[in-house]
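Consider the tokenized backbone below.
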């Protein structure tokens, strides 16, 4: 359980930061992948930076604010607003209204924070104080800022950077690209342009004429009641937790999947899906696993270098809960592997765009569904604003919308003892937290038992 602690924080008034120079005033097209009910939410991220001898005299808040105005010249749609258009579709109004920026000062050190909860990893008990989630219609999607940033200075000279992106403007890869560009300007305020120039390119993902649904899409809700966005109350009803899988744990899981040939994601996602099913789902129910796959580098037509929009599709594995619970782990992994094959070509993404075009912006299926997002290759913790790598960098909590508690993220992580592995961020009902952890450890330990038996 997360330990409760108190610290005093002085928070400044929020302000709007606009691009440093004039930018085009225009409306930008959003693709059907950007503009779907399931992505009409906000993605929260957080970075923790210890003090730096080289930058001890610099004010991180002032530096990041100045760099933000510069990077927004290149990412000027982020300073705009989403507007409603015909047939419920959203567009980006590049109106230069700006993004929210707020600075704060807390009387606590990085060392004290690291002692909380066994190291700096989600869940963060002070998250509500670090994110600008309480101002300017934080849960609104249209007519509201698309990015909110807060920089909190710590008593030791370190700082915390927390921010939320409107998911319709970017996915996790796009957020990583933007924050990397911001860090480059922090390192050199005289920089002419970011090393990876952003590209809009959403028109490439227009539906075909006529649209053709060439694949089944069980990931979407086909009812007449589209999924609504989450509310702040929804999150407060759930417990946030995280589970660390060391590389040794992952090897034990992979040994149940016919050896190390299987991807880490398949092993960890299979374990999490089975544990969640055992914990929350009735045996006679049908359960679904959705796992976002980035199509930037695998589908044609190719997306331009620097594309920061949402480019993920959500293939869906389906199983009876009692079969998932009763069969070995490699059965679950085989379901994931088979579904992956359906998105290897170019047709699946095109079919998703056409499905949304023909069926409207429906939400993802929620009935007994679970989403596991693989962010391991996005090394948020390594992004350097001048203070060196972060102690932690990545998603601030589990869940980005949809049905709260439905979305889990997996990130690369090194624990306080220096052990490397991955961290799974999970939210679920408080009364189920201990049972879920037990089910995960049971699967890892069962691999140990199998190894001992085979050695006899």
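A designed sequence for it:
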């Amino acid at each position: 359980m997360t330990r409760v602690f108190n610290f005093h924080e002085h928070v400044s008034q929020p302000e709007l930061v606009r691009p440093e120079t004039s930018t085009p005033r225009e409306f930008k097209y959003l693709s059907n992948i950007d503009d779907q009910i399931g992505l009409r939410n906000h993605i929260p991220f957080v970075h923790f930076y210890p003090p730096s001898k080289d930058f001890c005299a610099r004010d991180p808040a002032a530096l990041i604010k100045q760099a933000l105005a510069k990077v927004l010249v290149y990412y000027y749609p982020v300073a705009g607003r989403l507007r409603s258009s015909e047939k419920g579709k959203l567009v980006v109004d590049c109106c230069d209204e700006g993004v929210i920026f707020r600075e704060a000062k807390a009387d606590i050190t990085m060392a004290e924070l690291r002692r909380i909860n066994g190291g700096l990893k989600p869940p963060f008990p002070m998250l509500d104080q670090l994110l600008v989630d309480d101002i300017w219609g934080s849960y609104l999607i249209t007519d509201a800022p698309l990015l909110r940033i807060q920089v909190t200075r710590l008593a030791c000279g370190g700082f915390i950077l927390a921010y939320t992106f409107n998911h319709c403007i970017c996915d996790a890869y796009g957020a990583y690209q933007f924050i990397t560009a911001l860090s480059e300007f922090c390192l050199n305020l005289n920089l002419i342009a970011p090393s990876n120039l952003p590209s809009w390119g959403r028109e490439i993902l227009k539906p075909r004429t006529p649209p053709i649904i060439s694949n089944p899409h069980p990931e979407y809700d086909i009812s007449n009641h589209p999924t609504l966005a989450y509310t702040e109350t929804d999150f407060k009803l759930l417990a946030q937790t995280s589970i660390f899988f060391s590389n040794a744990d992952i090897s034990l899981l992979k040994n149940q999947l016919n050896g190390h040939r299987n991807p880490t994601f398949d092993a960890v996602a299979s374990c999490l899906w089975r544990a969640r099913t055992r914990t929350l789902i009735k045996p006679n129910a049908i359960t679904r696993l959705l796992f976002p796959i980035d199509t930037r580098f695998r589908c044609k037509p190719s997306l331009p270098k620097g594309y920061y929009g949402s480019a993920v599709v959500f293939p869906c594995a389906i199983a009876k809960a009692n079969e998932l619970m009763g069969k070995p782990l490699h059965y679950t992994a085989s379901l994931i592997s088979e579904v992956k094959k359906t998105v290897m070509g170019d047709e699946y993404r095109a079919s998703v765009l056409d499905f949304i075009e023909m069926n409207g912006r429906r939400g993802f299926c929620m009935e007994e569904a679970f989403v596991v997002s693989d962010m391991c290759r996005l090394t948020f913790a390594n992004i350097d604003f001048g203070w060196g790598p972060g102690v932690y960098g990545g998603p601030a909590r589990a869940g980005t919308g949809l049905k709260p508690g439905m979305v889990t993220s997996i990130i690369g992580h090194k624990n306080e003892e220096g052990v490397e592995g991955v961290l799974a961020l999970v939210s679920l009902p408080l009364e189920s937290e201990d049972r879920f952890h037990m089910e995960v450890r049971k699967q890892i330990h069962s691999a140990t038992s199998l190894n001992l038996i085979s050695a006899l």
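Residues 225-235, 450-456 have pLDDT under 50 and may be disordered.
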